[in-house]
Write a structure and sequence with these properties.
The chain has 276 residues and is mostly helical. The chain is built from eleven helices and no strands. The chain has one domain.
Length: 276
């Protein structure tokens, strides 16, 4: 698919107009708040499901580095991951009723995300409950395994190839960054393809996943630059600075995810030259 610069401007204007007119900034804020409340239950449920596959935990060390490098602000990533995992491990010790509450919380989060994606594609009809339950189980159980397998495979290919040509350290850093972007692209493309209750072309989901992955990379660099040169969060909040940073990160993350969804939803019109 060949894009002309003028057509790209029309596409970008269409996406930005929908983002503003349909109040996707408010949807991003709502999803950020819901994610904050549901993050620990989500991780607890995923870890509980993945405990049925012990090999998953042996590959978690490969996943962490890509999460840190692509999806989280570098200065706060370690602390955020530690806190979430600690709280999730404590949540895993709750009673059966408590675990059911966690499951319901996660279900409501996924349903909120599905509704937001359906709104992007202007889908009015909801899935039947059994199809929705099947999708959520796949997202919670199968998708982490798929992404982890991709991480392990790409990581193995990169690490075994390093050192064969006596490459400089900067090239290794670039290769690992490209690997992280590839994994993030696969992750987001899978969500754009599976979550909306409509047919999404795989190539459109892949373009949108690539956009979201680069969006996260750019946001990470902007955060790193701001925190290094304008340390107002640390000066005002001290050790508590991780909290507002994480809240702002969640909001901007959902804005990028929704922009990627808008791209995937708009590309069919763009390809048909129907953009106005």
């Amino acid at each position: 698919m060949v894009f002309r610069l003028s057509s790209l401007r029309v596409l970008a204007a269409r996406i930005f107009r929908r983002f503003v007119e349909e109040n996707f900034d408010q949807i991003s804020a709502s999803l950020a708040f819901t994610t904050l409340l549901s993050l620990v239950p989500l991780v607890a449920v995923v870890l509980g499901i993945m405990s049925l596959a012990p090999s998953f935990f042996r590959t978690m060390e490969h996943s962490d580095q890509f999460i840190v490098r692509v999806l989280l602000p570098e200065r706060s990533a370690g602390m955020i991951i530690d806190y979430v995992l600690q709280f999730s491990q404590k949540a895993a010790n709750v009673t059966v009723i408590g675990f059911l509450v966690l499951v319901v919380t996660v279900y409501l989060l996924l349903m909120t995300i599905e509704r937001a994606f359906n709104h992007v594609w202007w889908v009015v009809e909801n899935r039947a409950w059994w199809r929705r339950l099947r999708l959520y189980v796949a997202v919670l159980a199968l998708w982490p395994l798929v992404v982890t397998c991709v991480i392990v495979a790409i990581s193995y290919a990169v690490t075994t190839s390093l050192g064969l040509m006596d490459e400089p350290p900067w090239l290794r850093s670039v290769l690992f960054k490209v690997t992280g972007l590839s994994v993030a692209t696969v992750f987001f493309a899978g969500l754009y393809y599976a979550v909306p209750n409509t047919r999404v072309a795989p190539r459109h989901a892949l373009w949108a996943g690539l956009f979201a992955a680069f969006g996260f990379l750019l946001m990470q660099k902007v955060f790193e630059f701001y925190l290094s040169n304008f340390p107002s969060f640390a000066l005002i909040y001290g050790a508590f600075a991780t909290v507002p940073i994480f809240l702002l990160w969640l909001y901007l993350s959902w804005a990028i995810v929704l922009l990627g969804a808008l791209l995937a939803a708009t590309l069919p019109e763009f390809r048909s030259n129907n953009l106005q």
